[in-house]
Amino acid sequence: MSGTVCDNWPISARILAAAALVLCLALCSPTAASALEPGADSLGDPLFPQIGNGGYDVDHYDIALSYDPATNALGAGTRTTLTATATQGLSRFSLDFQRELTVSSVTVDGQPAAFDQRDAKPRLSRNPKVTQPAKLDVTPVGGLAEGRKFTVAISYSGVPEEITDSDESIEGWVRACSKPGDCDGSFTVNEPIGAQSWFPCNNYMTDKASVATSITVPNGFTALGAGELASLVAGPNATTTWSWVEDDPTATYLTSATVGRFDYVDDQTLFERTGGATLPIYGAIDSAGPAKAKAAVSRTVRRIPAMTNFLAKRFGPYPFDSIGYVADWVPAVGYALENQTKPHFAGNTKGPLVSDPELLHEIAHQWLGNSVTGRTWQEIWFNEGWATFAEVFHAAKVNEREQSTRQFFRAVLATRSQKFRLAPAELGGPINLFSGFAVYVRPAAMLEGYREIVGTKRFFAFAKDLVKRHAYGTIGERQFVREALGASGLRGAELRRLGAYFRQWLHREGKPTLTPADFRGQ
Fold this sequence. Notes:
By secondary structure, this protein is an alpha+beta fold. It is built from ten helices and 25 strands.
């Protein structure tokens, strides 16, 4: 039998049927214009509404950089390819990316896409020194249906510039200079928004992704990315490509692309007793540093295995597949950062520098801050409070001359009232993001007080459960407090008092009145 039922219909009926079919295809198609909308160009952070992008989730970043340390330029062959899943029908989507780098092409699933670079809104600061975040808008041909997996490839080049934050500290792609004019590469520390200074991304912690970083540099230079070294390949024109893979979900602010002349080692391992894993240790110390400073760093980093095992006993198995450190000589930065698997230390005017407390703090972040991350920048107290508590607790346990954690709590409570005016969960603006007392010290004291209220055994059982339950994800204040209350073992009025304790320590613009002494167990 040949033909169709429609063949026997009158011509007018066939025309109407065909028109109905076209209309149905137009309306019902998942990529129909009526089903597509632009993705949001903000994820609504209370301190940084300029960053983060809606409408998709990134699964993986593949970053390929061609870098010339002499000119601090990213050249031909520099490309970021990301794979993602559309969470809505998308007519357009945005990425976080600074305008100092020029985009030459964008493709979506291999097809050329229209794109535009622009400043993000609203204005971050009236201070002209502060860097305004920027966006890369991408319009794929035909749009993207909800649920579709897609690949975006962005080719770009130029000289990346450091980002100046609201407090006038610098971050992102910082040129590594031991002093003005004496520069040997890059130093990447990306908290809070610096990642977008060197690769296009969804620059927010709720969209973690695995990352592969390949950096082509002149022979004699070391290039460091997050995760494990996958390959080291000689290339043309006396270059080498260093390829790193971090297969665990990573927040963009914890990525690395640091380049320099380093004393580099990767022949050391540690046995992490709690998880039973042998972890490679990747280390890099600025080669130009004075011998005395480099020797001091070498002595300090030998404590990485002991520190890691100390923390694993309290927080659970180390969450990643390697560990390491980068001790550079970039005094203009002035701080250390917990880059995933490789904490970065900027040193000072005298050379590379890593102290015991600083090293312990950044390793502790690998559990609390890196694997489990505060959900918004307003919740940075979660990251820094845990790491500061760990720093104090470790010092008290391994060095009898240090104050106990109970003494630490009482010293914080005795601090003058003026210090308590800024509450950890009420920072007011990005200029206070790294306020030492509000963001680091007061939340650490809150955690110590909780330990005293519930007891050490319950406290560290709660910490381990927190790390296990929220591994490679994020946690908000309400969820943290709810789980802390549930793990406390308290009931009735005591439990309600504990809820008030957390509200005071996180939100009270003044000295909290509730302390462990207000609980019957104390």
